[in-house]
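WARN no homologs supplied; continuing
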Amino acid sequence: MKFSKILLTGSGGQIGSELTLALREIYGAQNVIASDIKKPCSEKLETSGPFEILNVLDKEAIKNLVLKYNVDMIVHLAAILSAIGEQKPMLAWDVNINGMINVLEVAREMKLKQVMVPSSIAAFGPGTPIDNTPQETILKPTTMYGVTKVAGELLGEYYVNKFGLDVRGLRYPGIISNDTLPGGGTTDYAVAIYYEAVKYGKYTCFVKEDTRLPMMYMPDCLKATIDLMHADFTKLKHHSDFNVGAMSFSVKDLADSIKKYIPTFTIDYQPDFRQAIADSWPNSVDDTAAREEWGWKPSFDLDTMTQDMLKVIGEKHKKGLI
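OK structure emitted
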């Protein structure tokens, strides 16, 4: 499936900032409209194509942008993430659920071709099998962010079955990027560790060394998202809740990978409230459904990711950009 004009909400975030640019490469800069509640930190995001200030709690504002640009597809990324969501749970519910309903309703009323609404491994909980977590499993999260992700998956499926709206989504694992810093998630340590390793040669981690979570490098995240966007709808048995895996490692594994290239790197541990959140999530996921229904296949493992992360961040550090 191809689209004429794509609107992204939450474009200033970790995934949105890079996905916007990737989609502009495919569809042309003027055909991909970035939006967020405030101006992005990335000047490139704002200058490489259309950018609009948008609060997703304002349904009429969403509709006006769809009309202004003749949008036929929305990638809805605007959300309050896990760590911030625990500090401000009512805000997380309001933005993550009511914002999503506004997007779905605009898409339904205006007969858009597709809505992409990411989910997360936060949809799982302590009762979920932690190793090779199945596609179909217990969803009883212990965070407000997780609650909103489960509700979002169910809403997406409801709009598919009730209204015939094409709604799709991935359960993102932790996403690691060398370009955009994360924005308040529990897996932020897996990005910060690289920056601290390059800048200072040491890192203090807010979860324990044996904490193991599913992770994905940003190039694979972008690939998974775009591949699902373009998949044949008739071949999809699932819609809003695809498990996607790439790699799974403990913090110690991550630190050891960095030490292969920075032998003097050191790490210590001071677990905080995010430890309990991490402990409620799986070690790894079974993504057979994504592989079978739309051909998902990752490209990076831990060491190839580490080499690329350290190279890019190292070059930024030499130029005084970080």
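The mean pLDDT is 94.
OK
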